[in-house]
Amino acid sequence: MTALTRSHAQPPASPPAAEPRPRPARGRLFTWPLLIGLVITAGLVVLSLFVGVYDVFGAEDGSEMFAITRVPRTIALVLSGAAMAMSGLVMQQLTQNRFVEPTTTGTTEWAGLGLLLTMVLVPEASLLVKMTVAVITAFIGTMVFFAFLRRVTLRSSVIVPIVGMMLGAVVGAFSTYIALSTNMLQSMGIWFAGSFTSVLRGQYEPLWVVVAVAVGVFIAADRFTIAGLGQEVATNVGLNYNRVVLLGTGLIAIATGVVTVVVGNLPFLGLVVPNLVSLFRGDDLRSNLPWVCLVGISVVTVCDIIGRVIIMPFEVPASTILAMIGAVVFLGLLLRKRNHG
Amino acid sequence: MITLSGVLKTYSSEVAIGPVDLSIPPGGITALVGPNGAGKSTLLVMIGRLLGMDAGTIEVAGYDIARTHSADLAKILSVLRQENHFVTRLTVRQLVGFGRFPHSKGRIKAEDEAIISRSIDFLDLADLEGRYLDELSGGQRQRAYVAMVLAQDTEYVLLDEPLNNLDMQHSVQMMQHLQRAATELGRTVVIVLHDINFASHYADYICAVKDGGVVSFGAPDELMRDEVLTAIFDTEVRVVEGPRGRIAVYY
């Protein structure tokens, strides 16, 4: 209000010839806070390399074990953490809803269904085939969810993730039924519990696809942010809204599908991380993307390290820790939302 | 010049817009007025290609909007709907920056920054440019949206009820901003207005819409007459000579 009355007293502002004060132009991507974040994340990643039961320094085959398990496990942490956080970010923009991410919209369950169907129908299928099918079903599932959202306009509401979780539960129940009747329940449970224990050299490599997804998201970042302002704003600036949604869904499906097949279900990561980052930095997707990736990596790495240490020499899946932390943050967000209208 | 010929939009057997033939001259402010549900906003968003039409053609600056690439249209025409409830947390400057998208495709250069700054200054938002949209009042937010549309730097600017939710002071300021955009920046502004007196004072042309068709078009003095307004609004209207032009009295 003060700004209004003050500016009102001024003569009509003519385009200023010289800028009287520095204007916050779109900042550079690499700032000091980001570098600090990078160092912290790198520290966690290095820590992850050296945490575990096996003595990689003392034992005779230590260096070999290091290369077979620790390095792949840590790379998997980095890639899947970034992938799920990014997926959540893009999804929240496209749906204009803060509570949406692959595990609250059924995307993960759809990917799981695809994986299960491949295991049942083509047991000898390679990892690549399983992954492709999971990506396709994840894409279909996400489109089903988006199509549903378009019919019922309740975008800004808490109902959206509830609908998504119900959808996911239905798909999950269907998967369980198939697993039960084909005697696959146990292997399904192992597949889906997001755990990095079984990540080994020779079977985590598909995760590198995530790097391509990250590049894609970065290139299309502004388009996603604009799509987040709604179809009409997007059309106004000449964007094909449906094409942006399709592109986003494709990228999300690839990231989620691959992570689900290689690692499993990583609940709430895509929810917690973008919301945390948004709290401090707003929603400009392009400048947030490095932060979302870093925080995603850090959260997953911390959860996995906790999981490895807490009942040593045994392990708790990272997803279990993640679910506990995520549920608390989710509730916090819900309450915050209610308090702040 | 905006030309509509035979524009038709059918919702059901009873409800239809058109067929409308209309020419909006370049320059100045053209106000679309009329009762609720007459089809003002529908016409506006059809011109802005946010809504498809069932028949007819619309040309803006000689471009057939149905055949011109949307990305090219975005450089000559900008349109803003009345309801904008973004959940996206952007600063004013970031939002206005997205108005540059048709030109910059996301790579904001120095000249884009200059235009962004100018649009922000034009709507007196310089002190607020670092604030998030959800920290602004309704009137400030509305100005931020208009600044975004102005940053798009299009010859034609279409606004759907930009005075909605604005109080008296902010409504007047908004109209002054738009008037300056028309005169100083040479834009053609087409707006949907609810208040006939705002149209009378600020618009260069008034287009009266009723029952899905254009019933009269002309300079304010031509439309600001008892019998014309009474027929448009189905309400007894008397036009009186006020201190700053004609005023419609309808209460």
CATH architecture of chain A: Orthogonal Bundle
Helix content of chain A: 55-70%
Instruction: Report the sheet-strand fraction of chain B.
Output: 25-35%
What is the CATH level 1 assignment of chain A? Answer: Mainly Alpha
Q: Calculate the terminal CA-CA distance of chain B, rounded to whole Å.
A: 36 Å
Number of helices of chain B: 10
**Domain tally of chain A:** 1
Q: Given the structure, what is the number of helices of chain A? A: 14
Biggest sheet of chain B: strands, sense, closure?
6 strands, mixed
Quick check: average pLDDT of chain A? 82
In order across it, which strands form the biggest sheet of chain B? 6-7-8-3-9-10
* Main sheet makeup of chain A: none
Termini separation of chain A = 22 Å
Silhouette of chain B: globular
Radius of gyration over C-alpha positions of chain A, nearest whole angstrom: 22 Å
What is the 3D form of chain A?
A: globular
Descriptive overview:
- The complex is a heterodimer of chains A (341) and B (251).
- Chain A has 341 residues and is an all-alpha fold.
- Chain A has one domain (67-339): ABC transporter involved in vitamin B12 uptake, BtuC (Orthogonal Bundle), CATH 1.10.3470.10.
- Chain A contains 14 helices and no strands.
- Chain A has helices at 2-9, 32-50, 62-95, 107-121, 127-151, 159-181, 185-192, 209-219, 221-227, 231-236, 241-262, 269-281, 285-309, 318-339.
- By secondary structure, chain B is α/β, with parallel strands linked by helices.
- Chain B has helices at residues 40-47, 70-73, 92-98, 101-104, 110-122, 138-151, 168-184, 196-202, 220-223, 226-233; strands spanning 2-10, 16-24, 28-33, 55-60, 63-64, 77-80, 156-160, 188-192, 205-210, 213-218, 238-242, 245-249.
- In chain B, helix 3 (92-98) packs across helix 5, helix 3 runs parallel beside helix 6 and helix 5 crosses helix 6.
- The longest helix of chain B is centred in the C-terminal third of the chain and has 17 residues, at 168-184.
- The model of chain B has no long low-confidence stretch (mean pLDDT 89).
- At the A-B interface, helix 1, helix 9 and helix 10 of A face helix 2, strand 6, helix 3, helix 5 and helix 6 of B.
